[in-house]
Write a structure and sequence with these properties.
Helix content: 40-55%
Structural class: mainly alpha
Distance between the termini: 38 Å
Number of helices: 19
Strand content: under 5%
Length: 485
């Protein structure tokens, strides 16, 4: 989705500055045009929601820091690059020695709240627009609520309870200041997410209703899939099954690797992905430095070399698993487009899913982020069925994923073994799709998984990221830091 710039209101807020009045605050005259007639059209209303999608193209939202807090932190990835290049904080992220001042946690927090602000701006302006096609306005409201739910899901998975900012704050209003600085409980955040997704489901069309450039937009299926995932994290197993069953019109693609190539974008398995168009100069229409920051480094390389697959991940694949070659670039190999990776590059492995054939060394890439795929719906349902004791019904779903990977049926039959098999399939199926850290935390695997990777996961601390120091300084007694920080 192409980046747009709207001069009539501020889209870049939510960065913390020196005083609490600046946190999450924007002047109302800057947030909403003084004259709504300026955007009182289908195009004007759509531009607000396009601006939300464009937030996902940001460096802070989806690139360097995001890779740190979701991949480098986990047992699937190492810092990579050269030993002397820390990438700001990627070395301490890799070693789990981070603290509340670590920049990647700050940038992830800021970026998601900036996106939430864009959602709130859109939802605030829509009731003032009476020249917009009613059905379009309904859909746009659904898209805004879906993406607000998506961002809050990221926040609650990472930080635990966070402030719920459900409207544009009024500068100088003390209740709004308190709203912005007071953590809600995880249960309250999850309830807010579920309400947004329920509203989105009512407003959004099925994926099949989108054509042309609109295939990038959130659909009813995306909202059901995200709601199922929200249920998964709360262990509401029957709700997981019920919502997975409502994700219809999707299927597994036969070629796993095709999904990560340009020609495989928005295919039958894609439920929600962020679109990168690519560009050679600013402003670009892709995720800033997402590809080049993870590309091979050193002699004969063309990138920075960060976020490299671990040996443990490479060895976790069974013989014949096609996902291994589609996920990992190996030193000395030849890529699908004929590009050679010399044996002289710095690291033995790189993230193949971040590779772009056309913009492999450009700042703005055409690589997409695949956030929800039908394969996850299959595995979420399998996990829920197994947890409810319906293991025999879960096994065929696990085998669907294995067969597509070129593997035979799972040899396991017990509930305990199938649970482990599902966890492993999730690791291999979604490697470098920003789920691994959250998965090992939510399933209780983190301590053992990180120990196997030579790192110390402190139980009672590392389950949650630290809230940024800047937020805690402004919040004062209104919010408490997570344990251990």
């Amino acid at each position: 989705m192409k980046r747009i710039y709207i001069s009539m209101f501020v889209l870049s807020g939510l960065l913390f500055t020196g005083c609490s009045d600046d946190f999450l605050d924007v002047e109302s005259t800057e947030s909403i045009p003084a004259d709504p007639a300026l955007v009182n059209s289908d195009a004007g209303a759509s531009s607000f929601v396009t601006a939300i999608y464009n937030q996902f193209l940001g460096w802070d939202m989806s690139s360097f820091g995001w890779n740190a807090v979701t991949s480098i932190i986990s047992d699937d990835a190492d810092k990579g690059s050269d030993p002397g290049d820390a990438g700001g904080d990627k070395d301490i992220m890799d070693a789990l020695t981070y603290n509340a001042s670590t920049p990647s946690f700050q940038s992830t927090w800021n970026a998601n709240y900036a996106g939430i602000n864009r959602c709130n701006q859109a939802l605030a302006i829509f009731p003032k627009l009476d020249q917009v096609t009613p059905s379009l306005k309904v859909r746009l409201e659904g898209e805004a609520k879906f993406m607000r739910a998506f961002m809050y899901f990221t926040l609650v998975k990472g930080y635990g309870g966070v402030p719920i900012v459900d409207h544009l704050p009024i500068p100088g209003n003390d209740s709004d200041r308190i709203m912005q600085l007071t953590r809600k409980t995880p249960a309250e955040v999850y309830a807010f997410i579920e309400k947004d997704l329920t509203d989105a489901i009512a407003n959004l069309p099925e994926k099949s209703a989108y054509t042309g450039k609109d295939v990038v937009r959130a659909s009813k299926g995306a909202a059901y899939a995200l709601l199922a995932k929200v249920n998964l994290y709360q262990k509401n197993w029957q709700k997981v099954i019920d919502n997975c069953d409502k994700v219809t019109g999707y299927s597994l693609v036969s070629d796993y690797s095709l999904q990560y190539k340009k020609e495989g974008e928005f295919g039958p398995e894609s439920i929600f992905e962020i679109d990168g168009i690519g560009g050679t100069s600013s402003p670009g229409f892709g995720i800033g430095n997402y590809t080049v920051s993870q590309a091979p480094r050193g002699a004969g390389g063309w990138g920075w070399g960060f976020n490299t697959p671990t040996e443990g991940l490479a060895n976790a694949y069974e013989a014949g698993d096609v996902r291994r070659a589609a996920t990992i670039i190996f030193r000395g190999s030849v890529l699908y487009d004929g590009k050679e990776v010399p044996s002289t590059v710095a690291n033995p492995r790189y993230n193949y899913k971040a590779y772009s054939s056309s913009f492999y060394n450009q700042e703005f890439t055409d690589t997409n982020l695949r956030y929800l795929r039908y394969a996850e719906v299959v595995l979420m349902k399998a996990e829920a069925l197994n947890e409810l004791g319906q293991t025999s019904a879960a096994i065929p779903l696990v085998n669907q994923i294995r067969h597509r990977a070129g593997l035979g049926d799972t040899p396991f039959t017990s509930q305990t073994d199938i649970r482990k098999a599902i966890y492993k399939e999730r690791r291999l199926e979604f490697a470098f799709e920003h789920d691994r850290w959250f998965d090992i935390v939510r399933t209780g695997q983190a301590e053992a998984a990180m120990a196997a990777d030579g790192k110390t996961f402190i139980v009672g601390k590392h389950e949650l990221w630290p809230l940024p120091t800047t937020f805690m300084r402004e919040a004062g007694t209104l919010s408490q830091q997570n344990p251990g920080y």
